[in-house]
Structures are given as C-alpha cells and as structure tokens.
DNA sequence: ACCTGAACACCGTTCAAGT
DNA sequence: ACCTGAACACCGTTCAAGT
C-alpha cells in the first residue's frame, strides 16, 4: 500500500506518502462500493476508514465532514452520467422516436445500475463548495436532453414551445420511472419495457389522433 | 398528560395509563412534525422521546425499532394521500384535460407540502408487518389514477392500450416533478406551473398533429 | 503534509427492575 | 401493561501529538 510519488513542492525529490498514494481517491472508490452494497444510510465514515486500513480520523483530512464526502460522490456520479448521456446517440438516420428512445434507455440503464449514487446526485443539500462543479455537470446533463429537443423543433419534427418545459416533461418521466425502479415498485426488466412505452405515449399523446 | 380511559380487558373499570393516553399516537404525531422540520436523517428516537416527555426506551414498547416507526409513518402518509386523491375530482362536465389536470395538481400539492413524508412512502425497505396495509393503501392510490384512464378509454377519449402502462406514464411524470421540487431543482411555484404543461404534453403529444 | 489515538457527545437497542 | 435507568456497541467530529 506504500506508494512513491513526486512531492508537490519539489519535483526532483522522491518522497513516500505516509500510507497511501492518494487516500482521497481510495476513499471515494471504497465509498461508492459501500454505497452500492449497503445504501447511504449504512455508509459510515468509521467503517470506510476501517475498510481502507486507515484510522477513523484520517478521512477528515480529505473531507471536512461526512456531507463533503457525499457531495464529492455526487459529483463523481453526475459527471459520469453526463458523459454517458453525451455518448448515447442513435445510429445515423435514426428517427425521432428512435433517438429519444435511445436517450431514455441510456438514462434508465444508468439509473438502474447506479440507484444509490443517483439518489445522492439528486439529494436535497449540498455544501456550497462543490455546488459550482455540480451545477456545471448538471448543465451538461440537462443539455443532452434539451439539445435533441431544439434540434427536432428546428426540423419541424416537434411541437413548438419552451424546450426546457418539454425537456422537463421528458426528464420527469424518466426520473419517475427510475425512482419506481429504485424502490422496487418496478423490476429492472419492467422498467426497461416501460421506458419505451412512456416515450411513445409522450411523443404521440394520450388523446387519439 | 394523564388520560382516563377504559381498560381493554374490563369495560366497566376506569384506569389511568402510566403517562399517556396513547403514546403510540403521540409519537407518530411528534415524529411527523420532526420529519417535516428536519428530515428523515435527523429524526432520532431519543430526541423524539425527549420531545414527548418520556424515557428513551419507551417508544420501543410501541415500535420494535426505528424502521417500524418509519413504516408506520409511511402508512399514515400513504393513506392520507390516497384519501386526498380520491377526493380530488373536477367539477361535473369537466373536460378530459381538466380532469387530469385536477388530479395532477392534487398529487403535486400533496407532494410539495409533504415532501419528507412522501419520500418515506416510496422508500426502499419496509418491514413485512406493515407491507399488507401499505399495499392496500397503495392500491387505493393507484386506482385514483387508473380509473379515470379506463373511464376515458371507455368513452373513446383516450388511446387504447394497457391502462396500467398509461397510468405509469402519468404517475412517473408526476413523481418526477415532485422529486425535482423536493430537491430544489424546481421551486414550488414552478412545479405548479410545470404540472399543467406536462399534462398538456402528455395528452396531446410532442409530435405535431 | 499526513495520519494516529484519545476524548466527547451523540445514537439505536436491549433488559432487568419498578409501578 | 407500560415505562424507567443503566449498559453496550456503535456513530461523527475534534484535537493534541507523533512521523
């Protein structure tokens, strides 16, 4: 577990860190693991320290309190999700329906496999320290939903109207299905099937044409 | 605080309870208050006992552990919500659009004013003890959404298709907006405005007619 | 700079004992 | 039947002290 790294203040000098090459990163990885296994409520700093082989007071050097760790975890999750959604594009020449279904499935797939992490992302209170980075990542994520909408509107394929409002309609549906999956109302399989149905209903409407 | 009540085993005998007429009910009321003020994470059994003027071990006579209290609270919340939705009907002769908007606003209104309680209702794990009552109340609630759908389908006002699937589309949208409001993404006012927009989009569809 | 060990004030849960 | 008081094993946070 001992790592050799260059000192931050003397590039030519080799120095041994006390216990870890990067305790902060190690803690974040272990915390995400614990989060996935046992949920937020059961995530304890002391147990995390034990699992990392470090004293219970050590994490406080990197995270001023438990909330700071959760915030950092939320940031990791949000940035990862934004990246995934940015990379989730339907094949060239795909129809509007296909493009939205692809996006929706990517969202739901992430939500199903990272339920606890996603809950953290959407949690009520974050320290102001990370809130700037969180909103930046949040904006990236929201844009992956809003941009396809403005594009489709420009092509006359979608109704006119505030694209943010339309994005909210889509985002709320996806978030709702994700929540129903996270709490067991919907099985993961049922959720995947549902998301296609919901996108269809949203695109074509519930009132007969 | 001393209450006089009939003993459960001798109707003709007056008896004084030790401290409370009904500690269980008192605890539930105080717990909901604490939940609303400070959130689930800050709800402590010991503080609850202090606020109720009882020893910290007393609640365990009525709730075997903290989860049992949260479950009981969830049941209260779900039954109240089911009652509210059952009572939320648009005036006679209201259009389909008006009927669904009325229902959606009632859901959102409850969600905004009982955010923490609703979170408990939709929480991941409940003890099997209450799960029967919870599913009964849950079914009542779901029916307030599904019944208007089957009614409208019978009248030819709504597309054919599994009413549960259509109900899920509506329910997921509402739940999503409620979640965005609970976590501060949407202000309560914006949420009320959004819900009307979302219902409109869902009814008429995002693809131009 | 980074971590340890002890200390403090809180938890939830259990259990003999009181009324 | 209902509640108390003490005890136990856990927390998160802080802080002097070690390397």
Protein model, in words:
- Two copies of one chain form a homodimer.
- Chain A is an all-alpha fold.
- A two-stranded antiparallel ribbon of chain A has the order 1-2.
- Helices cover 64% and strands 3% of the residues of chain A.
- Chain A starts with a strand and ends in a 5-residue tail after the last helix.
- Chain A folds into two domains: 60 residues, Arc Repressor Mutant, subunit A (Orthogonal Bundle); 139 residues, Tetracycline Repressor, domain 2.
- Chain A binds a DNA duplex (19 and 19 nucleotides) through helix 2.
Quick recap:
The structure is a homodimer of 209-residue chains. With 209 residues, chain A is an all-alpha fold.
Question: What features would you highlight for this structure?
Answer:
elongated; DNA-binding; 64% helix; Arc Repressor Mutant, subunit A; mainly alpha; homodimer; 209 residues
Q: Strands across the major sheet of chain A, in which order?
A: 1-2
SSE pattern of chain A: EEHHHHHHHH
* Percent helix range of chain A: 55-70%
Sheet-strand content of chain A, in percent, reads under 5%
Q: What's the count of strands of chain A?
A: 2
Largest sheet of chain A: 2 strands, antiparallel
Could you state the oligomeric state of the chains shown?
A: homodimer
As a whole number of angstroms, the C-alpha radius of gyration of chain A is 21 Å
The CATH topology of the largest domain in chain A corresponds to Tetracycline Repressor, domain 2
Dominant shape of chain A: elongated
Structural class of chain A: mainly alpha
Largest interface comes to: A-B, 39 and 39 residues
For CATH, the homologous superfamily of the largest domain in chain A is named as Tetracycline Repressor, domain 2
Can you count the helices of chain A?
8
CATH architecture of the largest domain in chain A: Orthogonal Bundle
Low-confidence region ranges of chain A: 1-17
* Amino- and carboxy-terminal Cα gap of chain A: 65 Å
């Amino acid at each position: 577990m001992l790592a050799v790294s260059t000192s931050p203040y003397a590039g030519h000098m080799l120095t041994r860190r006390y216990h870890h090459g990067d305790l902060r990163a190690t803690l974040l990885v272990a915390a995400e693991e614990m989060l996935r296994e046992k949920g937020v409520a059961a995530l304890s700093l002391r147990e995390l320290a034990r699992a990392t082989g470090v004293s219970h007071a050590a994490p406080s050097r990197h995270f001023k309190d438990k909330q700071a760790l959760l915030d950092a975890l939320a940031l990791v999750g949000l940035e990862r999700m934004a990246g995934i959604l940015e990379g989730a594009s339907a094949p060239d020449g795909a129809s509007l329906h296909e493009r939205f279904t692809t996006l929706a499935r990517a969202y739901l797939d992430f939500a199903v496999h990272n339920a606890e992490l996603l809950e953290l992302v959407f949690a009520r209170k974050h320290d102001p320290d990370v809130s700037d980075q969180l909103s930046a990542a949040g904006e990236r994520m929201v844009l992956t939903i809003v941009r396809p909408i403005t594009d489709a509107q420009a092509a006359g394929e979608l109704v006119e109207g505030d694209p943010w409002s339309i994005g909210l309609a889509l985002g709320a549906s996806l978030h709702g299905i994700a929540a129903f999956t996270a709490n067991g109302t919907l099985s993961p399989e049922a959720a995947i099937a549902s998301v296609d149905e919901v996108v269809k209903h949203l695109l074509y409407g519930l009132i007969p044409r």
